[in-house]
Write a structure and sequence with these properties.
This protein has five helices and seven strands, in the order βββααβββαβαα. The protein is an alpha+beta fold. It has a single domain, classed as Roll (Bifunctional nuclease domain), CATH 3.10.690. It has a seven-stranded mixed beta sheet with strand order 3-2-1-7-4-5-6. A hairpin with a 6-residue loop joins β1 and β2. The chain is globular and about 65 Å long.
């Protein structure tokens, strides 16, 4: 399992779908999870430090668990099946551990309210994690696209071009060292 943090909650410009972006704590790998608007709002409000006048469902559930002596140990984005993420909420009640199946959005909303750590399995990150290109990779990508778009004939009138050592058809080999 790999520890994650909530990087942001966003709205996709074209589809107006909501997405929560989890970021791996040890590197620049991200896990985007599409979520509903109500869960996105619940996560975003808490991240912004806004407290609604009346408790939201996630606030109520977190308070209820606390009042019953149940602690949220961690949440885990545990699986990706049929393009749907699944999560587990790991609870501790008097030393007894319970795992509850949950939607990732609800689990994340609870984790940020209780300070519980967020994890994702290696398998989920291997399948759905995103590593952004660095600036250098982006520049090279643009250059590669440009080069690939050129219609260049590699063989000139004297045959193929010389290789990097300066040899090949149309060129004499360089003199041997010491001559």
């Amino acid at each position: 399992m790999i520890e994650m943090v909530v990087e942001s909650v966003r709205v996709h410009a074209l589809s107006t779908q909501h997405v929560v972006i989890l970021k791996e704590t040890g590197r620049d790998r991200y896990l985007p999870i599409w979520i509903g608007p109500w869960e996105a709002n619940a996560i975003a409000l808490k991240l912004q430090g806004v407290s609604p006048e009346r408790p939201l469902t996630h606030d109520l559930f977190a308070r209820t668990l606390s009042a019953l002596g149940v602690a949220i140990v961690r949440i885990v984005v545990s699986d990706l099946a049929d393009e749907t993420f699944r999560a587990r909420i790991v609870l501790d009640h008097g030393g007894k551990v319970h795992e509850i199946d949950a939607r990732p959005s609800d689990a994340i909303a609870l984790a940020i309210r209780t300070g519980a750590p967020i994890f994702a399995t290696d398998e989920v990150l291997d399948r759905a994690g995103v590593i952004p290109e660095t600036d250098e990779q982006e520049r090279l990508s643009v250059f590669r696209q440009f080069v690939n778009s050129l219609d260049v004939e590699l063989e000139g009138p004297d045959g193929p071009p010389p290789d990097e050592r300066g040899t090949g058809p149309g060129r004499e080999p360089p003199p041997a060292p010491g001559r």
